[in-house]
TrEMBL record, chain A:
Transmembrane regions listed in the UniProt entry: 6-25, 32-52, 72-98, 110-130, 136-153, 165-188, 208-234, 241-262, 274-295, 302-323, 329-350, 371-389, 409-429, 466-490
Intracellular or extracellular location(s): Cell membrane; Membrane
Keywords annotated in UniProt: Cell membrane, Membrane, Transmembrane, Transmembrane helix
Main location, first listed in the record: membrane
Protein name (database record): Na+/H+ antiporter subunit D
Membrane topology: Multi-pass membrane protein
Residue intervals of the NADH:quinone oxidoreductase/Mrp antiporter transmembrane domain: 132-419
Organism classification: Bacteria, Bacillati, Actinomycetota, Actinomycetes, Micrococcales
Family classification: Belongs to the CPA3 antiporters (TC 2.A.63) subunit D family.
InterPro entries: CPA3_Na-H_Antiporter_D (IPR050586), NADH_UbQ_OxRdtase (IPR003918), ND/Mrp_TM (IPR001750)
Key word Nucleotide-binding present: no
């Protein structure tokens, strides 16, 4: 229990590390050591947090000992600590990968010295968003991670990245403004921004106002999570960034949006209010996203579209509103963070080895680099949901929950989910056929790197980059092996989120009746 | 309880907010980066005004003095929120200005360019030369029967011939007469006829 009170360190450590890395900007080696150490420490700490909340314990940490409706709280429960651990493990692998890339090629394309501080701040923002028990603090978390991501997105300042960066920045700022407007509206109508407090107070509002606030929050988070009609920015901006940056964005940033959607749906606006529209949106996200992927000719763009499509699965589980659906969605988020990141890292390796990620320029990689082929094949099959991988288990859980729901719309979603899964397999098989299986001679326009042999070819695959990728692939397989306990904790966290008691009691004290509010000093709560 | 206090918003502030939002959205839809940045700034300020309005009625600064009625104080929280949001929009504006400067350095313009890869995908015909080509009757690479070896050789030989011809072009273009292609006795005039002979 006491251990969870260290939660603020998950935000503080990366920020301090970023400051230290920033002062060491002229010493790349020391900088690398600092950021890897800090992130390892954070990961260790977060593992302890997860251990403390594994059985469903929920702890609220009052920052500065201010009492909850007024002060900021951080809430450690099973869902938030699971997200923290998975995201930190993934980002540590990406950091090592990026360090090796920076070490091997100090060229135009590699991460520059500003990479490490920005990266650590990004992690701090992600941790803050996951831990936040306060709507405005959630907004601040989003802004921290977004501002760091602007820098990472335009690293190097090439023409392509600036173009993509502008789209990304403008879309992100607009979504943040929408979120801020929603916060202002919520504060105007309830007089609080504490999420546990809101859980009680929002329920007392007029249903029309409730729907308005609910939709505004969902739209703001939907842009960040890249849910279908709001997803067009993602495939446009992600592929141009450096490979490790794309990988960590694909793994973490959209999932933070999904996390916020889950909290909105379970804590702030529980019950079956907007579940039907969400289901339709989930269906469209799954199908439209994957249709985009099938049309692509570049691995990174293709993977970006599969990312959009698979966000649909998470929204699907969330929209079902049942404990089974939500549990499967939580499991799917953890699985997808790992798998999507490892695929993007492999795409980066392919780009290094073959000089391009365009399918027209690839061929024969299966023979040229069997290791690369294995590293691609395992997460790719996992993404497509081939048994026995975790992708299969997650999808199975979602489909079962959908069938258990039994309504017509849920059945349509089940069919859509299967279809999207098959189309993912098609898209992935296309990459496999063209990049790995066909001979090098068949490549339309092979880059000189593809034809390199011997020592020159080995130099194209630095061990420092292959090792973290392999570690992440193994981590993905471990999610499959330990799927039982993982599904257990996902189900527990889902039941906990739907129940809300633990969360509200942890934040507002045991005497708080859900959804009633403890006696607040009159100056604040009562007046408005 | 809030008929005269809580819900009475300042109409002037609301009007200014509306105008800022309208202008901000208009500018945001432009293609010029400078205008987009200005639009973002206007939108951020409009939102700040909105938060200010949510604070309710005006009142005393929230510094505690004994004996003051709590309702006389202003609500400090929205102001703290505005302060945070000002800092954030400051960072975003600074970053956008950096981007504008960079686009100016790179291209002497500040408009948003199209995504070329996107255009390429959009212009791809629905017919894919590799995926949609008619499948030949004989799909196996190891056909059964007597013709197997011959067929395989013919295929490989064809490739080899191309290679040889291509290789032959290179030395012959150096116009060294004695290196005429193939076994053909090359006339001393030059390589070009020798290559022809080699192909024939």
């Amino acid at each position: 229990m006491n251990l969870a009170h260290l939660a603020p360190l998950a935000v503080l450590l990366p920020i301090l590390g970023a400051a230290l890395a920033f002062t060491l900007i002229r010493h790349p080696r020391a900088q690398r050591a600092v950021s890897v150490t800090v992130l390892s420490l954070t990961l260790t700490l977060e593992s302890l947090l997860l251990a403390s909340s594994w059985d469903g314990g929920t702890t609220a940490v009052r920052l500065g000992a201010w009492f909850p409706p007024f002060g900021i709280v951080m809430v450690v429960d099973a869902f938030s600590s699971l997200m923290l651990v998975v995201s930190s493990a993934v980002s540590l692998c990406v950091l090592i990968y990026a360090s090796a890339q920076g070490a091997s090629e100090s060229g135009y394309d590699g991460p520059v010295s500003i990479f490490h501080p920005s990266y650590l701040i990004l992690i701090a923002g992600v941790s803050n968003a996951f831990l936040s028990g306060d709507l405005f603090n959630l907004y601040v978390g989003f802004e921290i991670l977004l501002t760091a991501s602007y820098v990472l997105m335009t690293l190097g300042g090439t023409e392509q990245r600036i173009r993509a960066g502008v789209t990304y920045v403008v879309v992100s700022v607009v979504s943040s403004l929408l979120f801020l407007i929603a916060i202002a509206m919520i504060y105007a109508s309830t007089g609080t921004v504490n999420m546990a407090d809101l859980a009680g107070k929002l329920a007392q509002l007029d249903p029309g106002i409730q729907t308005l606030l609910h939709v505004m929050l969902l739209v703001a988070f939907g842009i960040k999570a890249a849910v279908f009609p709001l997803s067009f920015w993602l495939p446009d901006s992600y592929p141009t960034a450096p490979a490790p940056v794309t990988a960590v964005f694909a793994g973490l940033l959209t999932k933070v949006g999904v996390y916020a959607m889950v909290r909105t749906e379970t804590l702030l606006f529980p019950g079956d209010t907007l579940n039907q529209p969400l289901m339709i949106v989930a269906l469209l996200t799954m199908v439209v996203g994957i249709l985009g992927a099938v049309a692509q000719n570049d691995i990174k763009r293709l993977l970006s579209f599969t990312l959009v499509s698979h966000i649909g699965y998470m929204v699907f589980g969330l929209a079902l509103g049942s404990a089974a659906g939500l549990g499967a969605a939580v499991f799917y988020v953890a699985h997808h963070i790992t798998i999507q990141t490892s695929l993007f890292l492999v795409a980066g390796l392919i780009e290094l080895r073959a000089g391009s990620s365009s399918l027209d320029r690839l061929g024969g990689l299966g023979k040229l680099s069997p290791l690369l082929a294995v590293l691609f094949f395992v997460p790719a099959m996992n993404l497509a949901g081939i048994p026995p991988f975790s992708g299969f288990l997650g999808k199975l859980g979602l489909l079962q929950a959908g069938v258990a729901q039994g309504t017509g719309l849920a059945m349509v979603l089940v069919v859509g989910g299967v279809l999207a899964s098959l189309l993912t397999l098609l898209a992935i098989a296309r990459v496999w056929n063209r990049a790995f299986w066909r001979t090098t001679d068949d490549a339309e326009d092979p880059a000189p790197e593809l034809l390199a042999t011997g020592a020159a070819a080995r130099r194209l695959m630095p061990r420092g980059m292959v090792a973290p990728t392999a570690a992440l692939v193994v981590f993905g397989v471990a999610l499959t092996v330990f799927a039982g306990p993982l599904f257990g904790v996902a189900d527990r966290s889902a039941a906990q989120m739907l129940n809300r008691d633990a969360y509200i009691h942890a934040v507002l004290g045991q005497q708080a009746v859900v959804p009633a509010v403890p006696g607040a000093p009159a100056a604040e709560g009562g007046a408005r | 309880m809030s008929a005269e206090t809580g819900l009475s918003a300042n109409m002037t502030l609301l009007l200014i907010m509306g105008v800022l939002y309208a202008c901000g959205i208009y500018l945001l839809l432009e293609r010029s980066l400078t205008r987009v940045t200005l639009g973002l700034m206007l939108l951020a300020n409009a939102t700040n005004l909105l938060i200010l309005v949510t604070g309710g009625y005006a009142g005393l600064a929230p510094l505690f003095t004994k004996g003051t009625d709590p309702k006389d104080y202003n609500d400090p929280l929205p102001q703290a929120l505005i302060l945070t949001s000002i800092v954030i929009s400051f960072a975003v504006t600074a970053f956008m200005l950096g981007i504008i400067y960079r686009t100016w350095i790179l291209g002497r313009q500040d408009v948003i360019a199209d995504d070329t890869e996107d255009r390429k995908v959009a212009n791809t015909p629905s017919f894919d030369a590799e995926d949609d080509a008619p499948i030949p009757d004989e799909t196996t690479e190891f056909p059964l029967g007597s013709g197997a070896d011959g067929r395989g050789d013919a295929h490989d030989g064809g490739m080899a011939d191309d290679g040889a011809a291509a290789a032959a072009v290179v030395p012959s273009s150096d116009a060294v007469p004695s290196k005429g292609a193939g076994g053909v006795v090359a006339p001393p005039e030059g390589g070009s006829r020798g290559v022809d002979g080699g192909r024939a």
